[in-house]
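[job 4471] stage=fold_predict status=RUNNING
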Amino acid sequence: MDPTESLRQEVNAVLSARQLELIVNRVPAFIAQLDRRGRFAYINDAYAKFFRRSRAEILGREPREVFSHSDFRQIEERVASVLSGKAHSYQRQVTDAEGVTSTLQVELLPETPGEAGGLVVIAHDITGLKNAEERFSLHSRVLGSITESVLLLDEEGLVVYHNAAAERDSGLASGRIVGKHFLSLQAEPTEAAAARFAEAREKARAGGVWSGEWQARREGSGDYPAHADISGFEMSGRPFLIVVQRD
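[job 4471] inference complete, writing structure tokens
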């Protein structure tokens, strides 16, 4: 091979490696590579930062030398399994030296699927997502225990969420409420109801709370007078209305 061409290929290989390093260090994930002996051969910046260790403290060592005994016990069998060629996906909790606990979504992948060898670790911190799920679960339980009907409406007035009390008060099953317009759950003349709803929506969008009476519809047992409080909020840049209604 021409020496000039050989040098060009070598330079390109070095540049490609550097470019790959730059890319991997900008990925919002913790990435590590273990060789076939189970020792750390590579970690990206995010991995070192999350575990509060320098590269020198991690590279060339086995996981048992890097993590606490309890943390290592969580991954010991999985690492051994992946080194033999089997992938694993799981969640685990990690507590750092300052006592902060995080939840990680971890993917352990063999370098060559189905074959013994090294492995690649790709982990994401999903603590925020898990906390949001727990808050949503708590809020759902709270709303489920409230005796008043609670409806979440989109900007068009369509129901996107409701609690159990809304099913009881409307006489409709869950699948028959979501997607309905709020006004279709009321028994008032269309024009009058539309005007009052427009008034309530504008006040809620301005940060206020509209309070008033509606003649609500209950399927199978007739209409009934109901008091409603309508307020607004934004989620992901979109306006929504919350209706709390009681008879």
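[job 4471] summary: The chain has two domains: 3-130, 146-246.
[job 4471] exit 0
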